[in-house]
Amino acid sequence: MSTASTRLPEGRYGRSSDQRADRKLRIAGSVLGAALLALIGYFAYHYVAQNEISAEVITFQASGDAVKVHLEVRKDAGASGYCTVRSQSADGAEVGRADFRFSGSATRIDKVVTLRTTAQGTTAELLGCHAD
Questions:
Q1: Other C-beta atoms within 10 Å of 94: how many?
Q2: With helix as H, strand as E and coil as C, how does 1-18 read?
Q3: Least confident residue range of 15-19, 43-47, 79-83, 108-112
Q4: What residues have CB less than 8 Å from 99, skipping those under 6 apart?
Q5: Got the DSSP string for 63-127?
Q6: CA–CA gap between residue 14 and residue 9 (Å, rounded)
Q7: Are 83 and 71 in contact (CB under 8 A)?
Q8: What CA–CA distance (Å, rounded) separates 96 from 127?
Q9: Which residue, 1, 43, 44, 51, is most buried by CB atoms nearer than 10 A?
Q10: How far is CA 76 from the centre of its chain?
Q11: Domain locations in the chain?
């Protein structure tokens, strides 16, 4: 007795449609993956390369109608720009916001700035810095 084979003979009928679909999906996935990596790289480069000014709040001292904020700013030698600082009251309401400008050839600036408030401020928060 012989056993009947259930497989098709090799190479006689070409590739199955499943194999062709798998190949197209692999190509489409590779193209989309490469495009996504390129997009992430583009945004990462612009975030790092275009950020010429960075700063942090070292300390702050609140009084009745003002908050004195000690800022440390790091920037490129020729860069000029501004940093935005805000203060909030104990209940979370914003009581003051101002932009402080920085320019010059120094790459590191330590400065105490005074933020005028409409009520007693309890915080000093650096919202961000931007180059001109």
A1: 15
A2: CCCCCCCCCCCCCCCCHH
A3: 15-19
A4: 82, 83, 84
A5: -SSEEEEEEEEEE-TT--EEEEEEEE-TTS-EEEEEEEEE-SS-SEEEEEEEEE-SS-----EEE
A6: 10
A7: yes
A8: 12
A9: 51
A10: 19
A11: 13-50, 53-131
CATH fold, domain 53-131, is Immunoglobulin-like (2.60.40)
Residue with tokens 């180059």: 131
CB 60 within 8 A of CB 117: no
pTM of the full structure: 0.61
User: What's the residue count for the chain?
Assistant: 132
Beta partners for 88? 94
The one-letter amino acid code at 106 reads A
